[in-house]
Amino acid sequence: MIRRRRMILAGLASAILQPALVRAQARTTAPRIAIAVWGSQALDANRVAGLLAGLAELGWKDGATIQVDVAWGEGDSARYRSIVAELVAKMPALLVVSRDTEVKTALPLTGAMPILFAVGVDPVGIGVVTSLAVPGGTVTGVSIQNRELSPKRLSLLKEAVPRLARIGALYRATDENAVHWLKITTEQGKGRGVQVVPVPIDGREDLVPAFAAMAKQKTRAILNIPDRLFFELRKDLADLSLKHGMASIGGVQEFADSGALLSYAPDVISAWRRLATYVDRILKGAVPAKMPVEQLNVFELVVNLRTARALKIQIPSSILLQATRVIE
């Protein structure tokens, strides 16, 4: 009788413990992916959510079929390098970084580990891939071609302000790609009868004197090279533009949300979501060297009519018809 009771108890214990053991085995065998975000959770959580949503659609669910580690750099270079090192130490199957420029921080730490960038601006130009068609190394991702859109942004400003003759082109002085951006923007300006004036900015402290100088020179509009610095300063840029009666356009939709007249930008959330297909392929055995960098071609034009009214600008119907969103 006692032996039978022990057998029953052992069977019950086995029935109870087996699901737990299966779950434990799933946790240990599920591939790990690491996501190192340059920015903060407050600003960039929606981007990571886009990637996770894309992965879920492909059958990869955090805590079940994959393990996801996310860390935030808070816009600080030293902190970012530290979080990349911590994530890599966990030996993930791959590392996702926010932008192509962050690949340079990750490469010395990752060896043969695949690296995927969610937002590529000029991955060939900065040397993280050999070409868009054949990356040739451990790196690939999605390119949004944001800097090449500067001529389009200038055209939109000129269309909104037909008498525009002078525009301030803000750039970070230490940006290695600024020369190329200024060149194509200046050439586009000449073709439209607009003088493009370079305005170097290194931090918030440079904004007030820079805007005072531009106003004195009768600059009537601004645009900026896509850069994390200007994203963080977007509210300051919008406020100072309005104060000095300048139209402004930004490279992500948050600029218009913060008060800029216009924003014309790739759909960054779509880029993160699209990256899920790259994660899926690598987890199934693909190698980055043979995975072409995808060039995203989904763009959004946002018009801020509140700012237009404050600047006494009548936005033409030709722009409103192109708008994906209008802020009333």
Describe this structure in words.
With 328 residues, this protein is an alpha/beta fold. The chain has two domains: 10-145 and 268-298, 3-Layer(aba) Sandwich (Rossmann fold); 147-250, Rossmann fold. The protein has 13 helices and 13 strands. It has helices at residues 2-29, 41-57, 77-88, 103-110, 150-160, 178-191, 207-216, 228-232, 234-243, 253-257, 268-283, 305-310, 317-320; strands at residues 32-37, 67-72, 94-99, 115-120, 139-143, 166-172, 195-201, 221-224, 247-250, 262-266, 294-295, 299-304, 325-327. A seven-stranded mixed beta sheet has the order 7-6-8-9-10-12-13, sandwiched between helices. The protein has a six-stranded parallel beta sheet with strand order 2-1-3-4-5-11, sandwiched between helices.
Provide a concise account of the structure shown.
The chain has 13 helices and 13 strands. By secondary structure, the protein is α/β, with parallel strands linked by helices.
How would you describe this structure in keywords?
single chain; 328 residues; alpha/beta; Rossmann fold; seven-stranded mixed beta sheet; six-stranded parallel beta sheet; elongated
